[in-house]
Amino acid sequence: MKKIAGFIGLAFLHLMVACSSVTPQWQPTAVTDFKSVAGKWDGLLTSNDPRVLNYDRATLIIDDTGACESVITRTRTRVQGMSVDYGVTDVFAEKGKLVLTDGKLSTKFEKGGQVTVQLYVDPASGERMLKAEGKNSQGFTYSANLKRTGDSASAK
To answer: How much is the pTM?
Structure first.
């Protein structure tokens, strides 16, 4: 009986270690050039702006030259009888030109907003994430952890 309990305990320990190692261990990494992060990046947006909803999505499209576009979209669910419809609405969009300084990207957008972007890499998987933190012209702050959803060709 002790051997069975020991075996179950050991198996449980291995399961806990395996599950804990699935979580990415993000490490900040310097961006070396625009081509290394060119593409379409997408994630959930958080903000202290009361107009932003907790399911708004941020998209950052970066091209090989550093030109970029930031888009915030909102998905609305409509139910009518037995029918459900999901509509995506563009909440905000603006263009800018990224600057590469000290391994980070930054820009001031056409409408007065600004953003700083840091690349993070999980060494175990090679997975990459951009952490964007910004402020709009009214002083509200925004942040998003962006995962790559398309290459630079799909971003054009």
So the answer is: 0.76
Using alpha carbons, select from 60, 119, 62, 129 the residue that is nearest to residue 92: 60
Report the first-to-last Cα separation within the chain, whole angstroms.
Answer: 64
Q: Report whether 129 contacts 16 (CB < 8 A).
A: no
Q: What pLDDT digit, counting tens, does each position of 46-81 carry?
A: 999 887 777 789 999 999 999 999 999 988 777 888
Residues 99-119 pLDDT 10s: 999 999 999 988 888 999 999
Contact 30, 103 (CB under 8 A): yes
Burial (CB < 10 A; 0-12, 13-18, 19+), residue 27, is exposed
In the chain, how long is the greatest CA-to-CA distance? 71
Cα 72 from Cα 43, distance rounded (Å): 10
Provide the residue type at 1 as one letter.
M
